[in-house]
Amino acid sequence: MDKTQILVVEDDIQVQNLITVTLKAEGYRYLTAQTGQSAVIAAATHNPDVILLDLGLPDMDGVEVIRRIRSWSNVPIIVISARSEDTDKIDALDSGADDYLTKPFSVAELLARLRVTMRRINGVGFDTASSLFRNGALTIDYAAGCVTLGREEVRLTPIEYKLLCLLSRNVGKVLTHKYITQSIWGNSLDSTTASLRVFMATLRKKLMPSPDSPAFIQTHVGVGYRMIRVEDKTEYMT
Amino acid sequence: MPSHDGSILICLSPAPSNRIIIEAAAGMHRSKDAALIALFIETPGYEQLSDRDKQRLNANMALARTFGAEIEVVSGVDIPFQIAEYARRQDIFRIVMGQGIVPHSRLLPVQDFAEELLRYLPEAELHIIPDGSRKAHYRPHEDDRSSREQILVDLLFSLLILSVATLLGTLFDSLHFSDSTIMMSYLLGVLLISIGTSHRGYSLVAAVVSILLFNYFFVQPRFSLQVLESGYPVTLLVMFLTSFITGTLAVRLKSAARQAAQTAYRTKIISDTDQMLAKCSGKSEILDVCSRQVQKLLSQPFQLQSHDDGVCLAVSEFESSDSLANFPLQSKSRIYAVLSVDVSRKPIEVAEHGILLSILGECTLALENEQNAREKEEATVQIENERMRSTLLRAISHDLRTPLTSISGNASNLLSHENDFDAPTRRSIYHSIYEDSLWLNQVVENLLASTRLENGEAQLYFSTEVLEDIIVESVSHILSFSGSHKIVIEPSDELILVKADSRLITQVLINLLNNAIKYTPDGSTIRIRTQKRASSACVSVADNGPGVPDSDKARVFDMFYTGSQNISDSRRSLGFGLALCKTIIQAHGGEISVSDNVPHGAIFTFCLPAEEVSLNG
Predict the structure, then answer these.
(1) pTM reported for the whole predicted model
(2) A9 with A33: CB under 8 angstroms?
(3) B297-345, pLDDT tens digit by residue?
(4) How far is B517 from chain A (nearest CA, A)?
(5) Distance from CA of B499 to the nearest CA of A (A)
(6) What's A5-122's CATH class?
(7) Nearest residue on chain A to B499, alpha-carbon basis
(8) Where in chain A is the domain with CATH 3.40.50.2300?
């Protein structure tokens, strides 16, 4: 199998070294860029499989880089942000980024995110022909509109079902509160966002009959939600 | 002696030519430091001025004000004397006046006004401006608007009094009283007329008429104006003079009494203002008092607009119109407010003008004092903040340097003696570097949080969050260096929502957990419980370590307090961690406290206002 190629966009040499050394050790191929301009060009010419993008670039805003790349490509983008304000991550996610890492991050965390993203693009578990979605014990039958956990059918309200479908179609990707509320309710008023918290909490509880069962939906406080592949779960316990 | 600082006194009058004088005086006024004062002496005759004269006087005052003159109004009868007195008191000896100021209240031959002034104030430097008033001799017009009815009333009153006096005279005559008794009744009549009528002319006329009546009815030959006895003309002349002088004195007395009453009223308003202002605290209250006092004084609509915050107090359908009289409430350095009076329907009377300025002066003083007090207070707060900041900075640099020293020291050890260390030692060094870097990150997070809090409410991003999510998130940040501590989350049965800045609350929990790990021996258990109490959501972090001594409980949330046994140089002081927690929780409208665990250990509990959500299905 061809080695996955990763474009690392980072202006700080030390951090870039840390990332490239890690990638090399894990057997990934990589190329690097230090500015937003060269990142856009490298993305166009080398067609990488994944882009690791630092948001604080010297020449242009990282969000702008995402917008430009998204204008022609669907390549997964993981943003790396030193800014700890949630708004930066949310902006990046809303502009089309798939996932985010906050500096300082651990090497294990970086690799875990990469694997999740890779599995998503390889489309593991998607059975488009039968319109069935499988994730561990969870099965969603889009055609029949029913959800089963193991052998048990899970009774969901219409909103919960819509939420679950939205998350499952974007499995592995962090969806912001705004994106979800816009998709389900068509607005992102404060009251809607508050409702989303409640629906998500009940939905999660229904998909997690006991505290030991795997969590399908991950909460990113202040940012959004993501459905993860249950096989990935252990990798998130960093 | 010329005035030492070039201050100038302008004599105001209702004359049209007064404009020329004001302009000339303004032209002479060179130095900004010197005072320019426009003085009007309000005589008892002011009341009788016609509206046109009053309007012109107001216009003259406004003109003087545009040249930066201060308007002063002084009550008095003797104009030159009052001017001289005022000038002496204010130490101003340059006086600008017109050629022909005529003290209209005098019946005696008019002595030259300037001469009279110089007699009172020999050191004055008089500037007499040729204003043409010699040629077109100006005399203020007396008010003729209300006079028609007034004349009728006064005439009837005078006739009645004289008739009564004549009847009394007839009665006394029939009782064979002497002539002097009859004369006395006429004198009394003239005195009463002087008091009862509105113009001194009546007393003069009444004096003449009473002589004629006396002559006609009671002097032989009766019913004729002839006088036979040789002594009688002198008697009649003395009677005339006596009645006239008493009459004049009565008129003076009356106007003096009225002026005294007016002065008392003005003094009362001003002293009331003083008293009310003394009780005021804060700018808006002062402005409120000011507007109430002005309202007592003026019948015109007006508005009082605060200069820097735009607060506007308007009275009775005030509308911006062309004819506004504006009075700034200003000190040397700044304008506090502006009073605009609508004078389109009715001008401000001169008397009102004086009081108005006094009230505004008092209010300006109060505003200035208030401003000074506030600035002083702000300065104190700022000094306190500066002190806090420098203490914080010292604590922070300590907190940053300690892990940095360890990291750089360990790294340099590895660089120079890597091969001298055996594998387990190396591993422990790596571990120490890693742990210190994580610790450093927590310090930075706390710093960021405190900067955001310092910038106030605007920097907090409140959103409705599930409490448990925040707890899980916080614990995920801790696990990496909790060592052998065991962290247990005890979920609550119900879904608890809080409106909070999730980042900051996460930081609170991280600090509480770090604190618990730091102060408990390895292998201790830390339990996180959530609970809903009435309208608040509470989270408690309980450990089974040694606990917090009672003596420290009160101070544990204080800035830079790190416990009594290990003071500032303890390795991981993070002295402001708990203080930051308290600040964050308070900014959320919640509470944080510490209590004892059973059998031993500490419980830190914070409560946030719980949030109810109506679901958008």
Answers:
(1) 0.55
(2) yes
(3) 877 888 888 877 767 776 666 776 677 778 888 887 788 888 888 877 7
(4) 18
(5) 9
(6) alpha beta
(7) A194
(8) 5-122
